[in-house]
Every structure is written in C-alpha cells, then in structure tokens.
C-alpha cells in the first residue's frame, strides 16, 4: 500500500534524476527544477533509493535528467531497478542516443519512454538544441517503437513562431511511428524568466484544444495527471500538458523526486524541504533508517499552493 501525505496524496511514483549533464542545449530548458551539483549517485545508490521507495509502496519509477542516456551505466541502472518488480519503469530522454540503447533498455526491463523532440525541421532543431542530432533523435523514436517500448511518447514543447505550425506534421510522424504526441505548453523558467522571452514564444493552447475537442473521436481526462486531456484523433493520440504551477497540479501530485546528488525532493516547485539521502547512504544507514528519511520527506510534503490545496 502506498504511503499518503498529510494532504491525502498517495505517493505512487518516484522520478529519479540520474544526472545533470546533457548533450544538447535547448534554449528554453528549465532543467527540471534541478539544483546544480558536482557529483552523481552511482548505480548501486540509485538501486538502493529505488528499493527503499518500493518498500514504502512506490509503484512507478521514471528516470530523467539532464540526459539519462549520457550515463554509461544506464542499462545496468535499469536492470537493477527492474529486479524490484515495479509496475512501470519509464525514461525521459532527448532520444539522440536512444537508437543505440533502445534494444538493451527494453531487455533490461524498461517499460516505456518519453522522447523530447520538438521539430521535424533540421534548421529549427539546430536553433532549439544548438546541435545537429535530428536524425539520431528520429532514429531513437523509431527504434524505441520497433523494440516494443510502449507507449512511446513524443514531447513537443510548442513555441509560437518556432514550431507551432508543425503540430500536424509531428502528429503524422508520431502516427507513423506508433507514438503518442504530447504537446507541452512552454513554461517560464529561471534562465528564460523574462516576460520578453515568454511573450515571444508562448503559444496559447486553448484554441487548439477547442479544435481537438471538435475533431476527436474520443476525449479522456487523466485525473492523477493534473486532469490532462487525451484526444483520440484519426487513429492517433494527442495529449496536452499544461503548466504545473497551479493548485490542480499540487492537488493531484502523487510523485516524489530524487535529485542527481541524492536528495529527496518532495515537491517539484520548492527547494526548502529537500532531504539528503546520499550522505546517510554513504555513511552506512540501514534500509530501515533510509526508509525513515523517505517517510520524513513525505511527512513534510507541503504543496506550493498549500493554502488552496
Ligand atoms: N533530457 C531529457 C529530455 O530531453 O527529455 C530529460 C530532461 S528535459 C529537461 C525534460 C522535459 O522538460 C522535456 O520534455 C523538455 O522538453 C521539457 N522542458 C524543458 N524546459 C521546458 C520549458 N521551459 N517549458 C516546457 N517544457 C520544458
């Protein structure tokens, strides 16, 4: 049974960021709420964190970063975690190295994958990522589908004037590759905080959602995913991911996070309640003592919008 916090939110999933390093330089990147750090948990430490999480009822693991596939031991990490019998082990990647790893990751026990891929246009890709890896990313998506990672989701951050006119081409590409298209609304971030950036590129999804509602054969609302809408269109699937800085996100949040330097991060949007796991692990804490650290972190989970949740 999962443990619940004071706000009756069961802790079902754990997102482990296994590195801060990345091989692309997306100009809009929010670095996933990660704090800069100089060292990373090794594969045994990641395994141990996952094991204790499993002991307190966590059912799903997502590996993220930075770019998780940049780690040489990524297959070993997945292999170790999959011995713990989670319902689901997923990974978020930019896909550029996925062509090399998809098969062994699937064999190691990875269930599904999200690939961040914003454009089919090589020049736009280079503008966004500062790299020439578009073909590698496309190959990664194709390979992930081929080897049976399911579902493969393509995360497209929609930006006005950059890629918003490509939505339907991207949808076609996804259908051809048996992938779901996730349209992500641009968020304000620390490095692109200024309203100028946001005003220039932010694409309002409302009209698009109205259109999708009209043309969809079916629409589903995913309650524990912030009421995210899933549209079934023309034998394909499109999901729309709205910004996370709102009460609805907090209310339905069932996720803990771990930073690459081994800190439990109870809430995405705050850094004032982190709980160090790595130092205690390195000092020989028992699993029981580590479990207490997880339970403390859960006990101190405080919604960003706590007055409204
Ligand atoms: N390297 C991995 C990847 O590319 O998926 C994981 C890290 S990346 C930061 C995680 C996700 O955050 C990607 O889907 C990316 O598109 C999204 N993201 C980053 N900055 C964003 C922003 N300003 N607004 C919306 N989504 C953003």
Overview of the molecule:
The chain contains eleven helices and twelve strands. The chain is α/β, with parallel strands linked by helices and 309 residues long. It has a single domain, classed as Aldolase class I (TIM Barrel), CATH 3.20.20.70. It has a twelve-stranded mixed sheet with strand order 7-8-9-6-5-4-3-2-1-10-11-12. Helix 1 runs parallel beside helix 2, helix 1 packs across helix 11 and helix 3 runs parallel beside helix 5. The longest helix has 13 residues. The protein is globular, with a radius of gyration of 19 Å. Bound molecules: S-adenosylmethionine. S-adenosylmethionine binds next to strand 3 and strand 5. The site of S-adenosylmethionine (SAM) has 19 residues, from strand 3 and strand 5.
Topology summary:
Layout: E1 13-17, H1 43-55, E2 60-64, H2 74-82, E3 88-93, H3 98-108, E4 112-116, H4 122-129, H5 134-146, E5 152-158, H6 167-176, E6 179-185, H7 195-201, H8 206-215, E7 218-222, E8 228-233, E9 236-241, H9 247-251, E10 255-258, E11 263-265, E12 275-276, H10 278-282, H11 287-299
Parallel strand pairs: 1-2, 1-10, 2-3, 3-4, 4-5, 5-6, 6-9
Antiparallel strand pairs: 7-8, 8-9, 10-11, 11-12
Helix pairs in contact: 1-2, 1-11, 2-3, 3-5
Bound molecules: S-adenosylmethionine.
